[in-house]
Amino acid sequence: MDFKEILERWEQSPEGRKAAESSRFSTSRRDKDSLPASRGYITGKASLGHLKKKPDDDTLDLHGCTREESRVRVRVFLRECIDAGMKKVSIIHGRGLHSEGGQGKLKQVVRSELKASKYVRWYGNAPPDQGGSGSTVVILQRGQDASVLGK
């Protein structure tokens, strides 16, 4: 008789069942099982660190687009990324060095769309080696699809 058989017999005994029910592991499992069912993940901000380090699932390049074209393309891109189950994407809008006054107009459009979007969990400047202030990294909502989130 090996250890596995001994453990299985003990777990079937009255003492073993009583010990298993009162262990700290069964208590935490019961607590987890009693949580209300929800769509999506139950996560905290701590999980963002891992997602920020992961490579982009897709990229949208807006160079040469007008503001209105950019607005539409960002909305469609986000919806398609959510439908495809992507978690992290980037949007290249440029720094606006060739714009009037050196201010990036597309960046303002992108940021306002991201702020208003239900698909977006977090966004910010890309790291310097990935475009810096000329590119925005987006962490998407998880565990939902575009039909649930709406437009």
Describe the structure.
The structure is a single chain. The chain is an alpha+beta fold and 151 residues long. Helix content is 46%, strand content 14%. It contains 7 helices and 4 strands; from the N terminus they run ααααβαβαββα. It has a 4-stranded mixed beta sheet with strand order 1-2-4-3, sandwiched between helices. Helix 5 (67-83) packs across helix 6.
Count of discrete alpha- or pi-helical segments spanning 4 or more residues: 7
**Measured distance between first and last alpha carbons:** 62 Å
Structural category is alpha+beta
What is the N-to-C order of secondary-structure elements (H for helix, E for strand)? HHHHEHEHEEH
Counted up, domains total 2
| CATH secondary-structure class of the largest domain | Alpha Beta
> What's the mean pLDDT score?
78
- Radius of gyration computed on alpha carbons: 24 Å
Helix amount? 40-55%
What are the salient characteristics of this protein?
alpha+beta; single chain; 151 residues; Ribosomal Protein S8, Chain: A, domain 1; 46% helix; 2 domains; 7 helices
Outline:
With 151 residues, the protein is of the alpha+beta class. The protein has helices spanning 3-12, 14-22, 24-33, 47-53, 67-83, 105-116, 146-149; strands at 58-61, 88-92, 120-125, 135-140. Strands 1-2-4-3 form a 4-stranded mixed β-sheet, with helices on both faces.
Secondary-structure blueprint:
Elements: H1 3-12, H2 14-22, H3 24-33, H4 47-53, E1 58-61, H5 67-83, E2 88-92, H6 105-116, E3 120-125, E4 135-140, H7 146-149
Parallel strand pairs: 1-2
Antiparallel strand pairs: 2-4, 3-4
Helix pairs in contact: 1-2, 5-6
